[in-house]
Design brief:
alpha+beta; Transcriptional regulator MraZ; two-stranded antiparallel sheet; repeat; Chemotaxis protein chec; DNA-binding; MraZ_sf
Length: 172
C-alpha cells in the first residue's frame, strides 16, 4: 500500500510526571485515516489506537509511526540490504533488529492521551514539554530545548516553537 496521508505540522504539549501526554489531534487523524485506507486496500485491519515510538536513527529525538508504515519500512530495509552484496539474510536480520528492536508500542485513547515510557523520555531528555513535529510518513517528538539547539537551521519550525513557548509564557 502506498502511503499518501502524511504527518504535517507541529504541537507543543505538556508531559505530566507520569509521562502522560496528548498525541496531537492531527496526528491521531492520520493514524485513523491510514488504518481505514489499509482496510480498503485489502490489508488486515490495523489497530488505530497505538503508535510505535523509539529513538531516531540520526537525531536526538523520538521517531514515531503507525502500523501502516511498518511494511514500507521493511521494504526499504530489504532494498538497502539487497544493494549491499553481503549475506542478505543476516544483513536483513541486523537491519530489522536496528529498526524495529528499539521501538515500543504506545497505546493512546480516544482523546489522544498516551504515556511516553520513562525509558524513552530519559533517553531523549524529554521533561515536562514535548514538541511534536510532522516528518511526512513519520513524526518526531523532541525536547524543545534540544530541538532549538540541534535544528537551528530549520528556521520556520524553530520560529513556530519559540512562538508556542512564548504563548505558554515559557522561556528556555
Amino acid at each position: 500500500m502506498e502511503i499518501t496521508d502524511f504527518f504535517l505540522g507541529n504541537a507543543l504539549n505538556a508531559v505530566d510526571v507520569k509521562g502522560r501526554v496528548s498525541l496531537p489531534a492531527d496526528f491521531r487523524a492520520v493514524v485513523e485515516r491510514r488504518g481505514r485506507a489499509a482496510v480498503r486496500a485489502g490489508q488486515e485491519a490495523t489497530d488505530k489506537t497505538f503508535v510505535y515510538i523509539g529513538d531516531h536513527e540520526r537525531h536526538s529525538c523520538l521517531q514515531a509511526y503507525d502500523s501502516t508504515y511498518q511494511q514500507f519500512l521493511f521494504e526499504g530495509l530489504r532494498k538497502r540490504v539487497e544493494k549491499g552484496g553481503e549475506d542478505e539474510l543476516a544483513a536483513l536480520d541486523d537491519a530489522q533488529q536496528g529498526a524495529f528492536g528499539a521501538m515500543l508500542t504506545v497505546a493512546f485513547d480516544g482523546a489522544g492521551r498516551m504515556v511516553l515510557p520513562q525509558s524513552l523520555r530519559g533517553l531523549m531528555g524529554i521533561g515536562d514539554l514535548a514538541f511534536f513535529i510532522g516528518a511526512g510518513q513519520t513524526f518526531q517528538i523532541w525536547d524543545p530545548k534540544t530541538f532549538l539547539a540541534e535544528q537551528a537551521d530549520n528556521v520556520r519550525a524553530c520560529r513556530m516553537l519559540k512562538y508556542m513557548l512564548g504563548e505558554k509564557g515559557i522561556t528556555l
